[in-house]
Write a structure and sequence with these properties.
This protein has about 200 residues and is α+β, with helices and mostly antiparallel strands. It has seven helices and three strands. It has helices spanning about 1-20, 40, 60-100, 110-120, 150-160, 170-180, 185-195; strands at about 50-55, 125-130, 140-145. It is elongated and about 55 Å long.
Length: about 200
């Protein structure tokens, strides 16, 4: 009787072991072709200028899609300009607080809105193409840029419109801040060096 119980127990154990070894592990096959987005879509950059790329679903005629993506990209350029001007204001406040011990405020932001709209009319679509996305969709992408000349002119007009008389060193710091070339930590470090 003991041997029958032992044989039964061994049989059940063997059967359970066999079942567990037959579990099929899921296999993941890498896709045959990984889609890589162009760098101008992922990270739109123009040296000493401002750039943005926007993509829209291909649901209409090319010209309609191009106009829609261009309008979205221009709106993003306006946001970038707004952020840059706010950074200029903050940097200017810090510079004047350090130099004079006080500050009377800045007018960069108040004069920038109208000037930004004028500058945006000078922006151009520098890349336009249909792009395949990883989710198996195709979109029309437009990279809109403000050239270095247009960007520099905008900066000069903002400074002039603000009525601020900047020394060349302060103007250089503000222009770099406007271009957002440096990360916030780097700007803070440069500012600390400037105070010394």
């Amino acid at each position: 009787m003991k041997s029958i119980k032992t044989i039964a127990a061994v049989s059940v154990f063997t059967l359970m072991s066999a079942c567990s070894s037959n579990n099929v592990q899921p296999t993941y096959e890498p896709s045959a072709q990984k889609i890589k987005l162009p760098s101008w879509v992922l990270n739109p950059i123009i040296e000493n200028g401002i750039a943005d790329t926007q993509c829209v679903q291909t649901t209409a005629d090319f010209n309609i899609l191009k106009n829609k993506a261009s309008a979205l990209a221009r709106a993003e350029l306006a946001k970038q300009i707004n952020v840059s001007v706010k950074a200029m204001d903050k940097t200017y406040q810090r510079l004047t607080d350090t130099a004079d011990g006080s500050s009377s405020g800045s007018d960069f932001e108040s004069v920038s809105k109208q000037l930004a709209q004028q500058a945006l009319s000078g922006s151009r679509a520098t890349n336009v193409d249909y792009v395949d996305f990883p989710d198996n969709t195709q979109k029309l992408c437009v990279m809109m840029t403000m050239s270095p000349d247009v960007t520099a002119t905008l900066f000069e007009q903002i400074v002039k419109g603000s009525g601020r008389d900047l020394n060349p060193r302060d103007e250089k710091v503000l222009y770099e801040r406007f271009l957002a070339k440096k990360a916030g930590e780097e700007m803070d470090k440069e500012f600390e060096n400037y105070k010394q």
